[in-house]
Amino acid sequence: METLTLKEIANALGTQTKFDTQVNAVCIDTRKITKGCLFICIKGERFDAHQFANEALNLGAAAVMISEDIEVAGPYVKVDDTAKALLSLSGYYRSKFDIPVVALTGSVGKTTTKEFTHLVVNSQFNAIKTQGNLNNEIGLPQMLFQIDSSTEAAVIEMGMNHFGEIHRLVTATKPTIAMITNIGVSHIENLGSRQGILKSKLEILDGLKAGSPFIINCDNDMLKTILDNDEIMQKYNVITFGIESDAQFKAVDIKEENGSTSFDVKYSTSKIIDETDGPTAQFSLWSQHISIPTIGIHNVYNALAAFTVGITLGIDSKKAAGALANYVPAGMRQKSVNVGGIISIEDCYNASPDSMNAAIKTLANVNANKRIAVLGDMLELGDFSKKAHADVGKMVADNNIDYLLAYGNDAKYIVDGAKQNGMKNAFYFDNKDELSNKLFELAHKGDAVIFKASRGMKLEDVINNVYNRWEK
């Protein structure tokens, strides 16, 4: 972060301070205090950081931001709401830098697409990216404050649960390119319908200047409706990617082998040529071969989206393809490993109906003797949960998965849905050890297993249990 003065900060937030202290970072956690930082006292539902204001100063903070009337033993600035001020200040700070900023959102696959996109953008620019799950109104500002004079680009992921959240995030981020990967059913309990989800995601345009690139997956039924929206089509440079539809960036000849996927991208570019009788658009057709070290058609979409961003930013196609080949799955985000001759796909970071569908299709396409789905609860679905889990069971049956092992409270509805659609080998467990024993009994060399559940289900307990035995 570049240095700001406390008076500059106060002025940006529409308030005043008598202190003109310099700050070189912004912090909201006393465990991460750095010398010279501004400590912002966030007040949450279960905590109030105002109690740590003076401790932060003692630990080296140059100043604190408060919203309560407290005694502060050092420089401070007072605002009405510290959380809102954090986001507003990050927007002010972002506006000081004239760099490409890619903002992306979607119902599923945001983080993987962000990782792919950062690889491509970083191949040409010194780029920062959203770290971990810092994609909300508290986390995103922390990423914007990472921009400094050496930063040449940024890739920012945006999450949301309710209407208005992306509007506030994008107003601060001020992207030069916006992208929506897909519209599914995640957070439908808060947004009412897929139309509501689309509406909330389209808030990403609220911070995008007219004429700027707006990249969408036109294979997605909801996003495809944008092509009939004259207001959006006329205001922005809408760029499409896809596999099934006639997109500007289209993946063809998709092949999966040995844990990797290869495909060709057919795409067109255009430029304006000044001629004697006026400007003329000149179109060119191109093709680029891409190979990524992961599987699943959803990852083809993710990589294709990233490639589209790269070409839009003027990055050489071969350089973009080379960057995508360096992708490494993070944590338990569809990480494929071979354990004792058994193909194991770990995908337990989170789960939604959309990502469950993608995971099941990935398993169905694996070349294996038997395909076994180990699935757990999808959390935070509210009243939609029973039907959503039953629908997952139907997906398992429809994709001809050989065995289904389900764990959790609502996972029993997955089994019910599978059996109702003709699957015989569907088993429900309320005990991880019993599930592990059944999986160890079923899985042998040449088989494939996928583990998929919300993070809170901790399916890694099952993974560790069977890995220890498979490796022997």
Structural class label: alpha/beta
Number of helical stretches of at least 4 residues: 17
CATH architecture of the largest domain: 3-Layer(aba) Sandwich
CATH level-1 class of the largest domain = Alpha Beta
What count of domains describes the coordinates? 3
| Total DSSP E strands | 21
Concise description?
It is built from 17 helices and 21 strands. The chain has 472 residues and is an alpha/beta fold. A 9-stranded mixed sheet has the order 8-9-7-10-11-12-13-14-15. A 6-stranded mixed sheet has the order 16-17-21-18-19-20, with helices on both faces. Strands 3-4-5-6 form a 4-stranded parallel sheet.
Describe this structure in words.
- Helix 14 (385-398) links the parallel strand 18 (371-376) and strand 19 (403-407).
- It is globular, with a radius of gyration of 24 Å.
- Strands 8-9-7-10-11-12-13-14-15 form a 9-stranded mixed sheet.
- Helix 11 (297-312) packs antiparallel against helix 12.
- By secondary structure, the chain is of the alpha/beta class.
- The chain has 3 domains: 4-80, Udp-n-acetylmuramoylalanyl-d-glutamate--2,6- Diaminopimelate Ligase, Chain: A, domain 1 (3-Layer(aba) Sandwich), CATH 3.40.1390.10; 97-324, 3-Layer(aba) Sandwich (UDP-N-acetylmuramoyl-L-alanine:D-glutamate ligase); 335-470, Protein-Tyrosine Phosphatase, Chain A (Alpha-Beta Complex).
- It contains 17 helices and 21 strands.
